[in-house]
Amino acid sequence: MMGTGAMLRIDKQAEAEMQGAVLPGNSTAELRRFAVPEPSWGQVLLRMKSSTICGSDIRAIYREYLGKGPEGYQGVIAGHEPCGQIVKTGSGCRRFTVGDRVIVYHISGCGLCNDCRRGYMISCTSEQYRRAYGWQRDGGMANYLLAEEKDLVFLPDALSYTDGAQVACGFGTAYEGLEKIGISGNDSVLITGLGPVGLAAAALCRKLGAHRVFGIDLLPGRLQLARDLGLCDEAIPSGPENVSEILALTAGRGVERAVECSGHHDARATAIRATRRWGRIVLLGEGGTVQFQPSADLMHDQKTIYGSWVTSIWKMEELVERLVRWQLFPSRLVTHRFPLGRVDEAYALMATGRCGKVAVCFDEELL
Ligand SMILES: [Zn+2]
Ligand SMILES: [Zn+2]
User: Fold this and answer.
1) pTM more than 0.90
2) CATH number, domain 171-307
3) How far is CA 260 from CA 29, 133, 174, 185, 276, in A?
4) How far is the CA of 175 from the centre of ligand 1 (A)?
């Protein structure tokens, strides 16, 4: 901690300003200068260490501003998957202190509505107080981040900051969905869409003891990454034969569980139809639509479809503990790291989809 203290004093003298990236909505990322914020009551200042890019950043902000409400981008510093170290605390902090390594739950809620009281600030119903980092308040694509103490989760020493950056959104979203449908050694699992959330779901299915994991994606690079990381028993190119391919792999019955991570209408229909009688499907991929026959595809086979959006902060704490127990390191999904100065390249690469997870990193996380 002595080193941190010394670092603090240097920071205070030398850094009144910092760089932060904003997304103008024209497929670029723009670096601007900002004042280093000052934590007030119940707030902390983080020195950023790792900030990963999410599919939703690309879908709703980067190319053009498509988001409304919770996905409405208000021109703030981007990045809703931040992980860093506390360098300053405001008054009134009760648990966290300077030097702590922390993950930030990426939506700051009112704290008082029913959803916030369940720990699901993602679903906070207060229009006035619900603020997502990187959407309606400054996010992690900067040297420093101002966060509310109530939004923090301790990052264990066994996990790196780049592991931590993926917990809140990607791994948390996947974990929540898998907990909703329940995964055990009885289950063959189909994952449609092998982007970061799909790969996270596959990695978690392995640790939860799934019997077999099948993945489907359009992009050969993603299928290859799933194979290289040993996350899927079969990685199958998406196409019109997908349902019969899955039936052939499961003695004609279909999978017990399906996790839809693509948001594509055909993939959603595949996930529903390739699930066996009494099976469960969870939808995690955003946007779009789906067409299926309620009687033939769902009701008569006694299947259940779950919807799921991100996770709760207590489940994030539980996931972090389990990642250590399982020795599961989310940073294995990161294929590219960029310094903040090259943030534009980082978003451009993520927008191609020809990569795993892309991270903007600082200090030791860049080495
Ligand atoms: Zn995200
Ligand atoms: Zn709330």
Assistant:
1) yes
2) 3.40.50.720
3) 29, 25, 10, 20, 15
4) 14
